[in-house]
């Protein structure tokens, strides 16, 4: 399983991805984010799904970028090229995979800005090759293990959230997911695209880098539960008077 999240806020895009790869009983570490930059073209590609399909699709797309990547003027055009290569891999590999009992599965998050985009863009690409744009109404998308981090995002992330706060929210969603499943783990790769910058920043965090943040969050959660208003519990848990023994 994978944890990949991308958040589009007014100031730009923040994306986080774990690096754990699980194949049967074997586990390894591999980057799940690829960055493409030249001139006023800057975007990233994150994937969740079959690693073999991901590597093959990415190889095809990188070849296309090297041959004539400059023809893309808007990000959706690059997304269409990724989709084309995703369908190509599906046509080559779907039948053998299904015959071996596996399902062809590859989701992508693609975000950034090209020279003719009026603002930063974020897209979710499905295994079938169709895509949707992530907009202000729900300014994020999760691929991979999405159940555990989504409640926090729904409650706290807004389009006018700052890049710094969005990164904090993304980290907390990662902590929640990592706690609940063994298939998501550090190192955690962070990708940041500030609006109109045409440059992507990347940084990797190890477990020890954020251990104090995780502990702070865990302590606050426990304290908040203790401090939660309790008057509504009285009809359910009435106060019991201590037993008064009879005089002998």
Word description of this protein:
The chain has 248 residues and is α+β, with helices and mostly antiparallel strands. The protein has helices at 51-68, 75-99, 150-156, 163-180, 207-227, and strands at 3-9, 12-18, 20-23, 26-29, 33-38, 41-49, 106-114, 121-125, 131-133, 140-144, 188-194, 201-205. The protein has one domain (3-229): 4-Layer Sandwich (Glutamine Phosphoribosylpyrophosphate, subunit 1, domain 1). Helices cover 36% and strands 29% of the residues. The strands form 3 sheets. A 5-stranded antiparallel sheet has the order 10-1-2-11-12. Strands 5-6-7-8-9 form a 5-stranded antiparallel sheet. Strands 3-4 form a two-stranded antiparallel ribbon. It starts with a strand and ends in a 21-residue tail after the last helix. The mean pLDDT is 94.
Quick tags:
globular, alpha+beta, 5-stranded antiparallel sheet, Glutamine Phosphoribosylpyrophosphate, subunit 1, domain 1
